[in-house]
Amino acid sequence: MVLKNIGELETLQRSLRNEHSEKKKWVAVCAGTGCLASGAESVFAAFEKELKERGLKKTHVSMVKPTGCRGFCERGPHIVIYPEEISYQKVMPQDVPEIVEKSVKKSEVIERLLYTDPVTGEKVVRDTEIPFYKLQTRLILGMNPTLDPSSIQDYISRGGYSALAKVLNKMSPEMVIEEIKRSGLRGRGGAGFPTGIKWETTRRARGGPKYVVCNADEGDPGAFMNRSTLEGNPHSVLEGMAIGAYAIGASEGIVYVRNEYPLAVKNVENAVRQAREYGLLGKNILGSNFSFDVSVVRGAGAFVCGEETALIASVEGKKGVPRQRPPYPSEEGLWGRPTNINNVETWANVPLIINRGADWYSKLGTPGSKGTKVFALVGKINNTGLVEVPMGTTLSKIIYEIGGGLPGGKKLKGVQIGGPSGGIIPADKVNVPIDYDSLKELGAMMGSGGMVVMDEDTCMVDIAKYFLKFLLEESCGKCTTCREGIERMLELVTKITEGEATEADLSLLEELAGIVRDTTMCGLGNTAPNPVLSTLRYFREEYLAHIKEKKCPAGVCKALIRFSIEPDKCTGCGACAKACPQGAISGEKKKPHAISLEKCIKCGICYTTCKFGAVRRG
Ligand SMILES: Cc1cc2nc3c(=O)[nH]c(=O)nc-3n(C[C@H](O)[C@H](O)[C@H](O)COP(=O)(O)O)c2cc1C
Ligand code: SF4
Ligand code: SF4
Ligand code: FES
Prior knowledge:
Blueprint: H1 6-20, E1 25-30, H2 33-37, H3 40-53, H4 56-59, E2 61-67, E3 79-82, E4 86-88, H5 96-106, E5 115-116, E6 123-124, H6 131-134, H7 152-157, H8 162-170, H9 173-183, H10 195-204, E7 210-216, H11 225-232, H12 234-248, E8 250-258, H13 262-277, E9 293-299, H14 308-315, E10 339-343, H15 344-356, H16 358-362, E11 372-379, E12 385-390, H17 395-402, E13 412-417, E14 423-426, H18 436-441, E15 450-455, H19 460-474, H20 480-497, H21 503-519, H22 523-527, H23 530-548, E16 563-565, H24 575-579, E17 585-586, E18 594-595, H25 605-609, E19 615-617
Parallel strand pairs: 1-2, 7-8, 7-10, 8-9, 11-15
Antiparallel strand pairs: 1-3, 3-4, 5-6, 11-12, 13-14, 13-15, 16-19, 17-18
Helix pairs in contact: 8-12, 8-15, 9-10, 9-12, 11-12, 11-13, 12-15, 19-20, 19-23, 20-21, 21-23
This protein binds flavin mononucleotide (FMN), iron/sulfur cluster (2 copies) and FE2/S2 (inorganic) cluster.
């Protein structure tokens, strides 16, 4: 069905809305990657079967709908029964008959499937009442829980493609650029470059054809917000790209998505096909003079291919290696033509801004950073998942209120923000509002929004080693200082964790960090020293303890830890001896036990097994 003009889009929107406004119940089954991994497909099939067998499909339930990621993936599979919004977590296929009997037929709530607040112990019926969701402002992820990502009709019925229609009908390209500039939107891919200015530069660049690209590479360890957006609401990204292309004067777009995201690839490819069928991509969109089409290119999954010039090389079929800038892609990008690259989340912001206006948008956030930001909250935190909050929200609100604090009553040590290019914010800075500028001041970076919470059992030298290892593997090797420098830095950090480094090694590490930062060509090398520099900035004494005292204060670096048993605390229960895989623990029943240092492989099982705190790690 090709929509020939804006009137036809509006008519379709109205009729779809009428169809969906019936009061019948419907069941949303999350079909994001996280929930699918924990069995959502069989839950979906169980609903279909149960409703069919009981003949309830027409009488009681209008549909069972697969929807996008709700962000709380660790508690999947998630289902919600509408219109009551009864929300169940960790649902198994065997729960389905009871759900149908009680919740679908009689609107009764099954207590055992509800969310239990870990702080108050209370059961919560609706997602909107769970602190994890209640305190968020979900604009980018807002539609995910109720939208079927495989249905363009579902997107259209919620006002989808109205922003594109508005732009084509009422706005010149210059007006669109002005609106985006006024909104204050900055790129969500890391550096936070003002989006409107980038669009304007590409529009003004000479030559053509021009291209727009969606960067869906998302290679940062722990980050999955772009994946969830593309999986859960692919049309919002395509609509944003079409608006951007109109403003810039581009007629072709590319979604560059890593092949390790098969569901995102499937859903976005399907969305492109549907948008073409409806005439929302292709020639003379909605009867206008504007023609624009999108193709999907799959990346092989190299972190450096997220760097824009490497991404361009990869799309062109060359080795995904960065090149010197300038010229910037906005002047000389894909096939040497002006190219505008934006991140998934940046594109998904565009329809919101056009629909609700720059004035509305610029009221959200801080003076320098507008709108919301999606963070992937992971690590030592009770509620892991995707968190969308207005820019300027404090880290402490995210960690303690939305994230529910740290498990086991452990103390917060720091938060790694922005993946390998970012840095660590120490616990005493968690009241700082999070935005592009405050993070930079603290020596970190927004990056794409990875947020790893670390407790007192985390060794900051070990963390620096982890990121250096990752970056060493991912460096393309073009610049000597990146190729060799990261390796030398890793050697030095490893020496520190093994208790074999001197203070001279620490000075050398700092000197090298400065050289790698200043002499490499692309952002990977420029930011590679960040994990070292930011841990040194806030946790220098921990490096010194490894070097001078040959101790790992967090008890993580194996070479520096010794397990021993405190005789006055040991009850002689024998639990540790049973658990030790090496037979390194001996002792008579009800008498203090001892660990043989020769046999001990420092696995730490005794430490976690002992209920009396008798095993000492130091
Ligand atoms: C090593 C490296 C990896 C990057 N990975 C990504 C990525 O996965 N996704 C992304 O949008 N930007 C990534 N970037 C930033 C992009 O190069 C580019 O700045 C961004 O896509 C621009 O979009 P924005 O203005 O919307 O942020 C990366 C940069 C570097 C240096
Ligand atoms: S800085 Fe590193 S990743 Fe970037 S171009 Fe140079 S060698 Fe390659
Ligand atoms: S588990 Fe603890 S209390 Fe029991 S024997 Fe081992 S050290 Fe002693
Ligand atoms: S995939 Fe279901 S909540 Fe994320």
